[in-house]
């Protein structure tokens, strides 16, 4: 089970969360990654945690002011990147281009989508993983794994029908170890979460709770 | 074989092309459609030709100023719609929403994409048909069927791997009956073309040439 | 005072509203226009009402699938067009291009914006008129003229500081004759409204009420 | 005269350029800034050079995956930011929001635009400076100051007519000290340049040449 903590643009201390994630991952043996803002990537990566970018653009070296180049975030320490997160929806052709850009820079790719049909679609673009996040549950108190379990199993089926080698993660409302365990039982091999850790008073305790059933 | 003539925003007479398409279709028995600008749909449909919209937005009745509602173009006479044309690329979630909007209004759907991987992706969204149009050939003199035949066969394979019931069309550079015939031999069941007819001095003659090998 | 009724994509009968607007305008002597969906423009214009498009794209004749060409909506009967409506926000360069496209096709232009600073900005692009519509009041029961009168007077000032020849309209929440009268007292020379007429059980009665204080 | 070097996503060493800029600025007394990719901001700022971001999004702390928060780039060491660069054109409402976000984080703002009309428009949004860059000259060998001098004087006039306190810079094709000097004679108080320094074999020498007439 892969736990990916998305720091978004929350007012947390990214280094504190990264250090906690690093330590809890080592203690529990559970794979934990942290997706940080571009300008924080280098200092997050310095903690030794598995570091992810939140987005890369479908571009190459060249004249692209204000865009995110996959090679640059990789050089800053990112090992993977989210693509097409619900807060950063892309054109289909740009998802395709971003997956290719990330692969060119040896970044692991996780493409997000709203529903099982879209999960099938993005799986066809050949990313390493896909993540289903129902928009209506994002940021809420109800976990996708309990509030809409069918969407997880349907997403797993939709991805498998297109390409069995693509991992399926899920997100939205996940904040406890039970949520993570339920997600695993539904066929997901990873979870995306954000506020449950990034906004927690004690991010380390929140992470320990999350991985407790997996350890 | 379905021949869909996209009038784009060319300075042609849409009614003249529509009448020619209607007549050539009846004489040859070949299915021919005309995709017109929204403001021309009603008078194009009055000719009796199979009328298509060039785009619909992922919206419902409501507060959507300056957008294209599927129900409105259907009421104006459209029977189908292009979605995600290379000159109107959409976010993945909006392609999904536009396909659903079109189906709600009983419009036949044809979702365009750049390459076989993206064709596999849009096929997963459940449209009636998909159309592969390599951007580098659009508007040129070399037909996709002769200039890049692998892209057509790969697109047919990519779509079949996801859903065998979705038709695969191709476009870009198609202007003669030979081009149409070649497309059919590669597995396409329809072609999209534009300037070859819309910019022709004699659209009727251009259409007759196009369908000649099919009649 | 100019009253522009924006039909958006509401499920109203555009011809019924257009006929009512035409008649009430003639009876009252108040200028009334109707902004319709592209596919409805021709039949709305046939009623003789002053017909507006809801949007034009910054394009010329050519390869622009699924976009709105100013010349085409003008040929369908539009005499003016909204640009940058809050439901269709454009890039600055595209507002500029759309104003130029509209002027090329002899369409009167009304560029919308959120607040006085943005009103000053769009006035600099040289449209015929600008319209301030505070997003938080759009679609509500409180008129901009009573709920946020400063925004109207500030918008009038901001536009005058840049170009005294540009008319300033206002919109959001306007549904009664009192609202229209208040808008005029604040310096606006026109109002944009939508649901107050388009969703009324009796659009003709709604229009008569609107223009009553002006007649 | 302010010389702002935009590193875009060029394959240069940002720290090398930053150190050269820092030293040449100190030696010549000419203000020189470097606009870097987000992921490079911290190490560029560590050189002590005046560091700029290439873009900020119109957002606040919160749920904004893959976007650039003004506060975060400021914390990484940025003192200013470009907004609406021609390679990153924004909606008008988002330019407004980005200027406000940057000011909230104490970032100096420079809003780019294509032509004098748009320069007048963005000046109305109250940035610290605006920069006119004719798209057709960007990346070319002809400097805006010699190839299209009227656009610079017209931009200066357009900005002054709206707000005399906003500085006017120019860019596109600037690569020599003569270009910078000409820009100043036309009324610009700063220049934006990119490839002339970022792609130079010897960035330090390129910068020395640029500031030579100003020292």
Automatic annotation (TrEMBL), chains A, B, C, D:
It is an enzyme of class 5 (isomerase). It comes from the Archaea. One of its GO terms (cellular component) is cytoplasm. InterPro entries: Aldolase_TIM, TIM_sf, Triosephosphate_isomerase, Triosephosphate_isomerase_arc. Keywords: Cytoplasm, Gluconeogenesis, Glycolysis, Isomerase. It holds the Pfam family TIM. Gene3D superfamilies: Aldolase class I. The active site is at residues 85, 133. One of its GO terms (biological process) is gluconeogenesis. It catalyses: D-glyceraldehyde 3-phosphate = dihydroxyacetone phosphate. Its EC number is 5.3.1.1. It is found in: Cytoplasm. Substrate binds at residues 6-8, 138, 173, 194-195. Pathway: Carbohydrate biosynthesis; gluconeogenesis; Carbohydrate degradation; glycolysis; D-glyceraldehyde 3-phosphate from glycerone phosphate: step 1/1. GO terms for molecular function: triose-phosphate isomerase activity. Belongs to the triosephosphate isomerase family. Involved in the gluconeogenesis. Catalyzes stereospecifically the conversion of dihydroxyacetone phosphate (DHAP) to D-glyceraldehyde-3-phosphate (G3P). Homotetramer; dimer of dimers. This is Triosephosphate isomerase.
């Amino acid at each position: 089970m892969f736990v990916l903590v998305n720091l978004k643009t929350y007012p947390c201390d990214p280094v504190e969360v990264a250090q906690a994630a690093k330590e809890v991952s080592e203690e529990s043996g559970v794979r934990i990654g942290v997706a940080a803002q571009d300008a924080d990537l280098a200092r997050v990566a310095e903690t030794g945690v598995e570091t992810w970018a939140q987005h890369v653009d479908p571009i190459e070296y060249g004249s692209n002011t204000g865009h995110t180049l996959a090679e640059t975030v990789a050089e800053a320490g990112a090992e993977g990147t989210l693509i097409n997160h619900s807060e950063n929806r892309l054109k289909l052709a740009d998802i395709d281009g971003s997956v290719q850009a990330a692969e060119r820079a040896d970044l692991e790719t996780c493409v997000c989508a709203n529903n099982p049909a879209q999960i099938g679609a993005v799986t066809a673009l050949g990313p390493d993983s896909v993540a289903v996040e129902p928009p209506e549950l994002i940021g809420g108190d109800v976990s996708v794994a309990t509030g809409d379990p069918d969407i997880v199993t349907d997403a797993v089926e939709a991805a498998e029908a297109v390409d069995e080698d693509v991992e399926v993660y899920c997100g939205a409302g996940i904040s406890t170890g039970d949520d993570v365990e339920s997600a695993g039982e539904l066929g997901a091999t990873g979870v995306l979460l954000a506020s449950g850790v990034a906004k927690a008073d004690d991010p380390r305790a929140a992470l320990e709770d999350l991985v407790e059933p997996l350890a």
